[in-house]
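Standup notes
- DV: blocked on the single-chain target, sequence here:
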Amino acid sequence: MDIKEIQELIKFVAKSGVSEVSIDRKDFKLTIKAQGNAPALINMQAAPVQVAASPAPVAAPAPAPAATPAAAPAENANLITIKSPMIGTFYRSGSPDKPAFVNVGDKIGPGNVLCVIEAMKLFNEIEAEVSGKIVKILVDNASPIEYDQPLFLVEPM
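- DV (later): unblocked, structure below
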């Protein structure tokens, strides 16, 4: 695990509201605990090296993950972009043998499940906050995604 991956994990802990994360691998052990509003890297053991990161101020996390609608690019001025509220892996259905939650052309409303994002072995259902019709799905199934990455384009109704 390199320093960039560790920094991304620290950001994830800060944004997700998780209070503690531990990773045990055969060559190192990493524990991150949130202290107040900022995460601090408490312990990383690899060979004889210990790494510490200074915590950065972070806003309080949202109570529950939810997709945030935002203005779409200029060419799709009337469309709403639903973005990822977290880093993880995007899944269109709850399991491989089940149908996708939504497809292009489906009508959605607030509270409808759009997808699942797996983050640290937790599966988070992402619900719509707007009413409309799915125009485009911007991410492939089982793809890694970043925080604030566009997932769906929705035509408002």
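- Follow-up: Helices lie at 3-16.
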